[in-house]
Amino acid sequence: MLVDITRSLSVIGVMGPTSRALLSRVTDADLSNAAFPFWESRAIGIGQATVRAVRLTYVGELGWELQVPMDQAMMVYDTLMEAGKDLGITNAGHYAINSLRLEKGYRAWGADISPDDTPIEAGLGFAIDWSKPFLGRAALEKQKAAGVKRRLVIFVLEDPGPMLWGSEPICRDGKTVGYTTSGSYGHSVGGAIGMGYVNNPEGVDSDFIQRGKYEISVSGQRFAARAFLRAPYEVGLPECVVHSFGFL
Predict the structure, then answer these.
(1) Strand residues in 63-190 grouped as ranges (E)
(2) pLDDT score of 240 more than 70
(3) β-strands 63-69, 169-172: how paired?
(4) Strand order in the sheet with 63-69
(5) Which residues are CB-neighbours of 49 under 8 A, at least 6 positions away?
(6) Among residues 27, 30, 32, 18, which one has the least CA distance to residue 50?
């Protein structure tokens, strides 16, 4: 039997290079890399509350998502904020998360990826376990062998002034080849950053992407952009941040 518990839980994301230090102040659980590896999920105590901690973040930095009973969410939040004062703890919202995840190349469901896009087109082929059977495997194997005609690419504008939001035309060598699927301002990379699919009927591979000269059209004006197939930023957040869903 399945039970929907969505409305009974809040999620508090504790993210940043000092997130382990912060959580270690409020829990007796062993949060070391050996004891609590990436993707691990377990119940831990925080103050007087018991939460489910998942070592996972959407910003490409060390951190945990805490699934907290709704009636204990504010207590857990207050405990974290008090314990992290000297660590530079601060609140962060979806705009901050969106900026950081774009810099790290993390895709957003419903924007950058959908049922109409394949993992290979989205640059997620590395996440496929080809040793196991799965629905759609034959189609993906065929596409992998033939090559794709569209590919998700990350773009960073060279001019630090304009802003990207999504749905801006992407130009390659003066020709429109697609549209951005999402965008934000990448403070760590010094310019607006976005993702979008580059299309070419003859095929799109890394060489095709790298040989092109790209511009993104913002309000009718084209701005030069650098194209990336890997995350343009590889370090992470400067401080520990708290991201919360549902109660702030």
Answers:
(1) 63-69, 90-91, 150-157, 169-172, 175-186
(2) no
(3) unpaired
(4) 41-46, 49-54, 63-69, 9-15, 241-245, 90-91
(5) 68, 69, 72, 75, 76, 79
(6) 27
Q: Structure tokens of 163?
A: 């802003």
Q: How many helices (H) and strands (E) does the chain have?
A: 5, 12
- Pick from 87, 111, 120: nearest CA to 184: 111
Quick check: helix, strand or coil at residue 141? helix
Instruction: Identify the pLDDT of residue 222.
Output: 98
Average pLDDT of every residue of the chain: 92
The alpha carbons of the chain give a radius of gyration, in whole angstroms, of 21
214 strand-pairing partners: 172, 225
Residue type, 247: F
Q: Which of 62, 66, 9, 76 is nearest to 32 (CA)?
A: 62
